[in-house]
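DM from R.C. (forwarded with permission)

"hey, sorry to bug you on a friday — could you get me a structure for this? deadline for the figure draft is monday and I only need the backbone to look sensible"
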Amino acid sequence: MKNVFAYGSLDGVHWKLYPKESHTYVGDTMFSVISTDAFLPYFRIRFDENVTAGEVNYAVRVYGENSCGITALSGNCNEQELHYVVDADPSTRWCSNIMQKAGMEIRFSLEQERLLKGIRLSIGQSLGDYPKELVIQYKNKTETWMDIPYTTQDNENYIFDFPQKCSQIRLVNQMDDDNVCWSIYELEPLYEENYYWTNQDTKEAVEDLTASDGSDTVWELLDHDPDTRWCSKEPMHAGMHLKVKVRSKQEVLGFHLDTGSMVWESARGIKIYGSDAGENWEELSYRYSSASDYLLDQPQYYQYYRIEQTGADDTAVWSVAEFGILRSAKEER
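My reply, with the result:
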């Protein structure tokens, strides 16, 4: 391989070259792009090499840590090994390396504000290494640490008395124990998602479905077949949209937009709008709940929704294989 260049982007539109000297290793049959920091959400690799189609096969493998949405992990005891709590490897652990002391703490942030129902602190085979008196706190809008009441039956799953919306968490050990260290094999926020979608419910709810581009395939969004898809048929550009009319004003928590196997054809940016009559659109705030789910910050009751593609990519079309309306789990049938 020759002349490999790697780029990162926050939005899939504006690209930044990763420095070759510090980030890219190129060998005869492989190359690596390595960084101690998390890569940007969009990644592009460019090869400057003239080959005939069929002569060369390329495969890409991504290595990293499954952080469960955790960022800014820190602590005041053996901080250099804290990364083991988010390495998705149950055989490795963080350990305080000294006996438990009051005041030991671990802090972490979430990529965005989320609703948590608890935290899992896996203790693996170190059954006695759980904190003997743990306080769990979140930082409120006034930057004050507030206690979160919880219960635990197994010293691993700490279930909050009430789900708490937060983005910064602190775990503080309150008790000395001269017999054991504090260990964590995996740290996992327990997200309160409480929503679902089904193809049948979505088909019953949708009265009309239109697309600004590729309108002849729009109903393949609802055929419950991940191998068929709606496709814009034109390279992605800002303004492309899907418009949904529901049969009556009903609770909508968000939308499921699954690209199936064509992951490179996912939208480079999304905005969601609601309207009572199909005009005078109001932009609705949302968060990514998963790679395919766009969860609105508040339940909405509009009759019309517009899902608009805001990015641009002249190398890919926009496509969606499965479309769903997200519902509150309490309404599941």
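R.C.: lifesaver. Helices lie at 20-23, 199-205.
me: no worries. The chain has two helices and 26 strands.
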